Amino acid sequence: MSIVNLNHVTFKYAKDLPPVINDQTLSFTQGTFNLLTGPSGTGKSTLLKLIAGLYPAFTGFLENGSIHVANQLVAKLTPAKRAPLVAMMFQNPSEQFAMSTPREELVFALENLQVVPTEIPKRVDSALAFADVTDFADRTFTTLSGGEQQKVSLAVIMALDSQVILLDEPFANIDPEARLFLLNRLTELVHDHGKTIIVADHDLADYQKRIDHLFILNEASHQVESATAIVAKARFDEFATQHQQQAIALPVADATPVFELDHFSVGHTTPLIQQDALQLFQQRLTVITGANGSGKSTLFDALVRLQPYFGSAKWTSHEIKRLRRRTYAQRVSLVFQQASSQFLNITMAEEIAFSQQHQLTPDWDKARIADAVQQLNLAGHENQVVYSLSEGQKKKLQVLIMLIMGTETLLLDEPLTGLDLKSVHTVLQLLHDAVHLQKQTVIMITHQLNDVAAYADLHLHLSTKQLAYEATL
Amino acid sequence: MNPTLLLLLTLLVGLEISFTSVIWANVVIIAIAIVVMLRYRVHWLTFVRLLLIPLIPAVGIWFSIRYFSTAHSVHFAWVMSTRIYAYAFLGGLFNAATTTNATLASLEQNGHIPTTFVYGMLGAFNFVPKIHSEVAIIRASARMRGVNLHFWSPQLLFKAIVAALNWSENLAEAMTSHGFTENAQRTHLKVLRISIRDYVVAGITLVVLQFILFSHLP
């Protein structure tokens, strides 16, 4: 029996924009585990939010069609009536709670549903236990990690007892253990409680044995198609095939260190990295790899003083926490994982001009910038508002404006996300030139490993709280 | 005391001393506030702050009335100075006796304030730590581009507003997804009531205040 039905749905963000979802007819069967995949920015979130009844209520415009959950028109239900039918776990763990602690949030949700007060504590306790969050039910959300917050989100959904559970890239910011725990719990919800799950994810690892159906969002037709067994197998195989590892050098004994860690630890509540001793080297392109949520970004935050650390972390023999922020930022810069954090102006041309105005070395002149803009396929977007660029364009612009600055040490957090293969090569070539022509130091976190070995000098891998150099990449 | 009743009482007391000029009333209010705050074991630094922050306006108004007003009234100069301190200590009392969460919960249940307002405020308060970290990121990002942003810089404000708009949208969606319906009926795990004792205390406070205000004390 199908529980979610879309009937000729066409959805646009504005009347004069092309549709994000076009003439979509689709149904999901009760008691199944469904996975929705497709390139980023093509409308996976939009589809989930349509089913959740959040769109078009919050934004956009439903041009045609209707969406039913359990034979009820979602758009017509009040949130309190809708929540027991369909609930959602959001991509950003920290932006989905109105109250300050998990227990308060669960009580808030149940009060919204007008559950009788005597019933509330019982439902709260069993939901907390199911999601394994009882131990920190009364801690404030700001002290919880991304993984812990997503577990709380599951507890809320459990308390609401929703029939259909939607998850929008729920594991993007969480550690591998939490991801596996949540996947196991979700599987249990399907098999033992008859819930219907639709999860949007671009990372297909660990799903193959759990799911009943794979759906693929087709970028060209703006439609979701159910994958045939052959297509599904190909997709999973593509994901399972290990990336072809290539040999890469290990650090040589006489290299000059740029960063030195000594009995260093960093983390939000519990340490993510505990490192006895480690050196990172000058004038090298070092690649850092490791699982989601293992602490790579936190390490960078500590290195640029956005996060306190314990023990010692030195930059060219100076203890980082004792350096003046203002001067240090001119020597060590970060290309943020969230591209919009980098931007200070409105249009692309203004961003580039701003960097040019404050650049530290004259390496990047007008001609070279124009050339890079061309190569990065950014030409023609000069007067576009930076926030309206696609995720891939934002990433490329971000890398470019930080390269123009000419900072001697450049840290990059996932600069290759959402880039097509040609752009990946262009960006890597620019970074390679920065190291080998301008004598800069580049340290880069990336998940995207294809062809990186050809440009990188060193490879650091983070696992079980330790960073170590590896001879392959 | 129930936060809604306490809020009404402090507002009423504040309003009344604005329209009367009795030094003793202000002094008694300050004294009662200090006693209540001591009972709630307020940190001594809070007292220091409450004494220092109103100091400049209090002294300023004393001198301007004493020397530069048409009547040169010493009495009125003292009325105004002590009034400023009375306001500050009324605020201190309210702050010591209740919390933001308790006040908002009580305003929802006892004050029948629209739930949209109550939970909007709660959500906003819980976002304060996020705003701090966002501002730190924006400033770091600017430093890396060779610019030092101060808290009054328009660029910092613009970026903070962009971030806040984004969060508010996300939060509103999440609250909706958790069943929150604007201004709809909700149940309450903790039912808050205004006790008879609270009404009696509030009543006595107001009667005593009238007595002080209208018995020709200076």
UniProtKB/TrEMBL annotation, chain A:
Subcellular localization, as worded in the UniProt entry: Cell membrane
UniProt record similarity statement: Belongs to the ABC transporter superfamily.
Organism: Furfurilactobacillus siliginis
Domain ABC transporter: 4-244, 250-473
Lineage: superkingdom: Bacteria
GO molecular function terms attached to this record: ATP binding; ATP hydrolysis activity; ATPase-coupled transmembrane transporter activity
Membrane topology classification: Peripheral membrane protein
UniProt name for this protein: ABC transporter ATP-binding protein
Principal location class: membrane
Pfam family, one: ABC_tran
Taxonomic lineage of the native organism: Bacteria, Bacillati, Bacillota, Bacilli, Lactobacillales
Gene Ontology CC terms: ATP-binding cassette (ABC) transporter complex
Keyword list, A-Z: ATP-binding, Cell membrane, Membrane, Nucleotide-binding, Translocase, Transport
SMART domains in the record: AAA
Automatic annotation (TrEMBL), chain B:
Location(s), subcellular: Membrane
Main location: membrane
Residues that span the membrane, as ranges: 6-38, 50-69, 75-97, 199-217
Alphabetically ordered keywords of this record: Membrane, Transmembrane, Transmembrane helix
Entry-linked Pfam families: CbiQ
Entry superkingdom: Bacteria
Membrane topology: Multi-pass membrane protein
A GO term from the CC aspect: plasma membrane
Protein name in the entry: ABC transporter permease
Organism for this UniProt entry: Furfurilactobacillus siliginis
